[in-house]
Amino acid sequence: MLRILDSTLREGEQTPGVCFDVHVKLAIAELLAAIGVDVIEAGHPAVTEEIHRAVRVLAGRGLAPLVGAHARSLEGDVEMALECGVGFLGIFYCVSETRLADRATDLDGAVARITAVIRLAKARKPDLVVRYTPEDAVRSPFENVMTAAAAACAAGADVISIADTTGYMIPGTDRSMFDYITRLRAELALRGFQPQIAVHCHNDRGLALANALDAMRAGAGLIDASVLGLGERAGIVDLGTLLAVLASDFGLAGRWDLTLLPELYELVSRYARVSVPVNLPVTGRNAFTHCAGVHTQAAVRNPLHYQSLDPAIVGRAPEIALDHMAGMASLRFSLERIGYGDLPDELVRSLLKRVKEVGESGRTVDLDELLLIVRAALERDARADRVERLAS
Length: 392
Ligand SMILES: [Zn+2]
Known about the structure:
This protein is of the alpha/beta class. 46% of the residues lie in helices and 13% in strands. It has 14 helices and ten strands. The chain has an eight-stranded parallel beta barrel with strand order 1-2-3-4-5-6-7-8, surrounded by six helices.
């Protein structure tokens, strides 16, 4: 069964300037649990005392998802994570020749270290889910990844995570996640191992979600994501978009409570001090808003003419923007929503002129402002009527 790991609290805090207080982390974790993610990666306890405390608090909260910690392949890191009471432990170690040389070690040295910490963790807590990540796996020699992954499995690792640490992969090319995961699974199976395969896709080329779906197609069963795609550099897979696509297009509707996504995004955005881009899929303000006259004319009749993702899956509805692109259909639609659906054409045309003038100044007329424009126009007409009557 496909599982989702949210790393907003771990990878997300690697966004420059982002640091969540423990009480905020708790609120974010509770929403993630209510949405239904499977693993919450809570942090790397060895990084700061505050992160250590937060991981302990979250792990002790009794949340339904597994709460996980990140750890280098060091006994001290692993002990610290275990002491927090986590149910999931992610350890990492590079396997590329240049990185190994930088650390004054070789593949044998790396494997010895990786397997020692996995054995230690499993000995301390047999039901702990242990994930091993060969850092920058996809740019490392495949044989090195295989050697380390097979040794990790033999030592007791449950999950092997393929990290596209630099957002290097491109679907449909010789750098495809689909091909990589297919080959990895086949070669591990030949050695008698069938671990769950996880993917951690960075978004440097804007392809994180595409690569994650490509990996899933090849049998990856655990996908990493974060709210707003927060993370190092361009971040990772955006959780909201991932869940909406899985629910809408991969037969997983009802698996998660996506109506809580807007609340989660609002919360994370506020405390990360990172605004939700207006055009972010699914959770962005404009994600389901139709604007151009031709679009709105068709969309008010049937939203599916210009929409393939149903906004109702995240508890939203299609919206119409009124600006310089507005037409009679979008204005009529909006007037109906504020109780003025029966105005004469001539008046609606003059309202449209006013709406377009406001739009040309670079603003959108929302329903509140439309009401003010309608009232002003009706008062002006009433005044004109009075003057006409007095004159006659
Ligand atoms: Zn990462």
